[in-house]
Design goal:
Layout (H helix, E strand, L loop, with lengths): L3 E6 L1 E2 L2 E2 L1 H17 L3 E6 L3 H7 L7 E5 L9 H14 L2 E7 L2 H14 L2 E6 L1 E5 L2 E8 L4 E6 L5 E5 L18 E2 L30 E5 L17 H22 L3 E4 L1 H5 L20 E5 L5 H7 L4 E6 L6 H4 L2 E4 L2 H16 L2
Parallel strand pairs: 1-4, 1-6, 4-5, 5-12, 6-11, 7-11, 13-14, 13-15, 15-16, 16-17
Antiparallel strand pairs: 2-3, 8-9, 9-10
Helix pairs in contact: 3-4, 5-9
């Protein structure tokens, strides 16, 4: 295999997702083994500045398009332009971060370019001129090695699987503007509005995540307001548990996660869900509180560097995955742990 490499920089209104820069590490490895040039592409409002940041990470040429039709992310115009740039630059490998937008554009580019997709890749190697990608299968219980039999090869990399390359502020360049492919009238999707999401640290970008499961509601010593029915009382207890989890996460500068069971029970919004049907995360530290560790949850966090489990059940599956385990009630363990960290960190 020979050719050039195109890295899709996932950005919104001038802010690139950190995982986009991680993809450049994968691109540099492949270029070193196979030869060829590395290009970067950023689309949407204020994308020029983001594209020019890519020069700090060693790309040969960066492209951008800030056409009004790309102001809001829509898959059709983003895919059409990405595919066009790939064709014009003789790209044999397209690399995307495994984000919501990245996965969608990657899949649609595969259709446009008649290429093959290797998604959610955690490692790459080159053998006899062929790219071999390692990716998790069976909810993360096994790792598979895959080879794509057609070109272009389209790869999406798992968040935090590749180390962000060392930037060099002395390297700079002028991004080249490319024209949009689709006119507004040819785009079927319309963005009708936005809903404000909760603030805080993004789950996918967090170095530390503290998650809660159904166990956050199991504190019989909490007395809910008298006018609550049984279900309301359960949710109220869970919310008190997630307050403790939130305090610990804030102390560590991390994000709050949750199991699907906690989300389905109405304890916390879906945006916090970690697992096969939620976010796939790879933080340096993952603390699971009151989470039994069903395989669906493990699929979303088993690649975390260090896993700590806190659970009253000594036979909970999460303990088999954890490096450190504490058998006990999270209501008993979290307050002194948070206080000890406060003193240690001087907060």
């Amino acid at each position: 295999m020979s050719g050039n490499f195109l890295v899709y920089i996932d950005q919104s209104k001038g802010q690139a997702l950190p995982t986009s820069w991680e993809v450049l590490s994968a691109a540099h490895y492949l270029a070193e083994k196979l030869g060829g040039s590395i290009y970067a592409l950023a689309l949407g409002e204020a994308s020029k500045a983001v594209a020019e940041m890519a020069y700090q990470y060693g790309v040969e040429q960066a492209f951008y398009c800030d056409d009004p039709s790309l102001a809001d992310y829509r898959p059709e115009p983003y895919t059409a332009l990405t595919s066009k740039v790939a064709q014009e630059k003789g790209v044999s490998v397209l690399l995307f971060p495994t984000t919501t937008r990245g996965r969608e554009v990657a899949a649609m580019c595969a259709v446009d370019l008649q290429g093959g997709v290797m998604p959610d890749v955690t490692a790459l190697e080159v053998v006899d001129g062929k790219i071999i990608a390692t990716r998790p299968v069976y909810a993360g219980k096994l790792l598979a090695k895959a080879v794509c039999s057609v070109e272009p090869v389209i790869i999406t990399t798992r968040v935090r699987a590749f180390k962000k390359p060392q930037g060099d502020a002395s390297r700079s360049g002028v991004a080249q503007r490319v024209d949009a492919v689709l006119a507004e009238g040819d785009i079927r999707t319309r963005v009708t509005g936005y809903a404000q999401a909760e603030g805080g640290v993004s789950l996918t970008d967090a170095n530390v995540i503290v998650s809660g499961g159904r166990g956050v509601a199991n504190n019989p010593n909490l007395t809910p307001p008298a006018d609550m029915d049984e279900k309301q009382a359960e949710i109220w207890r869970a919310q008190q548990g997630f307050k403790l989890i939130g305090e610990l996460a804030a102390m560590l500068g991390g994000a709050v996660g949750a199991s699907r069971a906690a989300v389905d029970a109405g304890y916390i919004p879906y945006a916090h869900q970690v697992g096969q049907t939620g976010k796939v995360v790879s933080p340096d530290l993952y603390i699971a509180c009151g989470i039994s560790g069903a395989i669906q949850h493990q699929a979303g966090m088993r690649s975390s560097k260090i896993i700590v489990a806190i659970n009253k059940d000594p036979d909970a599956p999460i303990f088999k995955l954890a490096r450190y385990g504490v058998v006990g009630d999270l209501y008993t363990i979290l307050p002194p742990l948070t206080e000890a960290l406060r003193k240690r960190l001087g907060k």
